[in-house]
Write a sequence for this structure.
């Protein structure tokens, strides 16, 4: 099992939470994020430009809003590093549970 991830920031999954995050990270920052539900249930891992990705998820209210309560992020120096880390997190989740997170549809 991998060492526990040290997420840099945690906020409620809302426009207000995203606005608070914007005060702490650069608009262009790339990294990895996790969307969490009730009792910190992992719903989705993702990577990319953090603010852009989270804004996209917030706008998809039918898919993400009913279940998602908060998000956590970690910033990386490159998109490639974030993508690798996301794949590791999904693989670890799958190893521990026998499935991928419910809101991760396709893994490349």
């Amino acid at each position: 099992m991998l060492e526990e991830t040290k997420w840099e920031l945690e906020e409620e999954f809302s426009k207000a939470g995203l606005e608070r995050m914007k005060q702490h990270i650069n608009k262009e920052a790339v990294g990895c994020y996790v969307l969490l539900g009730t009792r910190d249930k992992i719903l989705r891992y993702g990577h990319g430009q953090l603010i852009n990705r989270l804004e996209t998820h917030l706008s998809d209210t039918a898919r993400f809003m009913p279940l998602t309560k908060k998000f956590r992020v970690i910033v990386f120096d490159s998109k490639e590093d974030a993508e690798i880390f996301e794949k590791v997190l999904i693989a670890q989740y799958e190893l521990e549970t026998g499935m991928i997170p419910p809101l991760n549809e396709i893994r490349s």
About this structure: The longest helix spans residues 79-97. Helices lie at 15-22, 50-59, 61-64, 79-97. The chain has a mean pLDDT of 92.
